[in-house]
UniProtKB/TrEMBL annotation:
Gene Ontology MF annotations: glycerol-3-phosphate O-acyltransferase activity; glycerone-phosphate O-acyltransferase activity
InterPro entries registered for this protein in UniProt: GPAT/DAPAT, Plipid/glycerol_acylTrfase
Name the record gives this protein: Phospholipid/glycerol acyltransferase domain-containing protein
Keywords, comma-separated and alphabetical: Membrane, Transmembrane, Transmembrane helix
Example of a GO biological process term: phospholipid biosynthetic process
Keyword hit for Membrane: yes
Ranges annotated as spanning the membrane: 370-394, 425-447, 453-473
Amino acid sequence: GYQAFRALCKHVVVNVFFRQVDVVGAPRIPGSGAVIFVANHNNQFVDPMMLIALIDRVVRFLTAAKSMRRPLVGAFARAARAIGVERPQDLAKKCAGSVSCHAGSTSLRGTGTAFLRDLHVGARVKAGDVEMAVKSIESDTLCAISAAPADLSDAAYKVLPFVDQTEMYDQVHAALRDGDCIGIFPEGGSHDQAMLLDLKPGVAVMALGAMQAGARSVQIVPCGLNYFDPYRFRSRVIVEFGEPFEVPRALVGEYGSNKRKAVQELMTMVDDAMKGVMPGAADWDELQAFLTMRALYKPRTKTLSPEETLKLNKMFALARRRLTDDGRMKGLLAEVREYSDLLRAAGLRDRDVRLSLVNETRLAWRTCSAALQLVFLAPLTVPMLLWATPVAWVTSSLAKREKRQALANSTVKVKALDVVASYKILVGIVFIPLYNLALAIVGTAFFRGGFAAFLGVYFLAVPVVIYVGIRACDVSVRAWRRCRATLLFRGCSVTAGILQQLLVERRKRLQAKVREFVQEVAPMVAEDAEEEQMLQARQITRDLDLLAEEGALAPGGGGLTDPLLNK
């Protein structure tokens, strides 16, 4: 059932794959009543598993019906009490012939087409990135469409059928009437961009529709999923739960008479709330620059809390937006990027430089201590690495294959890193138990043990050894980083001279500038934060236009993501 799946997510997926999971704002989660959790979607399968593991309530995610029909993923989705959504893109069909039209035209002409057979009113014709709703069908080669957004000339096309989502909406409304929780990723699909993509209005349609159908009140909780190297095993994530807000009762009344306006107003509230839990970087490179600036600002002896980490990220992003024309901000970002380029050219990370910035005596002590840790933990880490090598090869190979397919089929992914971690975890869930089973059989046979010995090895010895090995590897990785930094900066005169001049001194100078900049602009940014939130532009009209073209807001309301398989 759900609790068994939640235990799998928490103890196997989250606690094993991630080294550190920090939660900010957990007390803000309502303990009862109807709640819709809205989150950014930066990690294909991991995002819903992460939220299910961290939220101490039953959260029913919307999942593509296509995924529900797959054996393994479907079993997980049913255990999680997911609500199936039949998506038009999963039912898309390539059609014979080609189509042509001019931008702004409401007529679509075909060559060698069979519109009377292949199209129906309400369906959508898609040619490349151009998509249009079918209004009426005149003949096999002519149909009326919504205004074409671009020119088409003898373009191949496919048809996305109209799907009646009444049953899905009824399930969502019933769940919210009963005071349950719904989870949704309103960006629509997973991606690896730093910024929040335009939100689909499905969440507003669900909330307003549920209250119109009898739910006493619905609260919306924004969730920010902030991954650090999400595709790497034993990486870190910070999850922030924002302030919940109730869907205004006045919008429910307005929804009955003016659906478009009510949805627009509620989506503005959702948009603002989600931007409040996001870093706010314009792109991936800018996000990396903010992370470097945060590392430069942090005092060596201080460990930032998750709240402080997120606050600094948001402060840098807000400062960049508010000080667009300020030469200091531009110059500082340019210097940080130049420093990052030097690190990449040297094959280093900022932490390698930071670890070298101690006096010789302390550096020698820390290096000796780290070397001793590596030696004493070797009996645990070496077998663990031998065990993990086949696992890493299988999961990485399949994840890379899926990454190539995701890049080929998506227009919003940068490097498709959002699918890498997800597929590593999914493959691992299947491969590791089978791999351990084979090892347990071989080990039991080698030592001539019986069935009881096999059960002890498989269910007790192997899990304990893996857990201890993972913890030992965590410590060993940190120890190796200290030794590596010493070897790079003190190991050879040529390397030490070049790196110390170009990196160590550059870091000291840049660190002073970052700290001075933070002290100067932080008060100003704090005062402007509320105004910034009020002035942010909202881009939701595109999806509302598509829904209005179909004659209603509820059917095919968008935002119905596949939290387990959506690319």
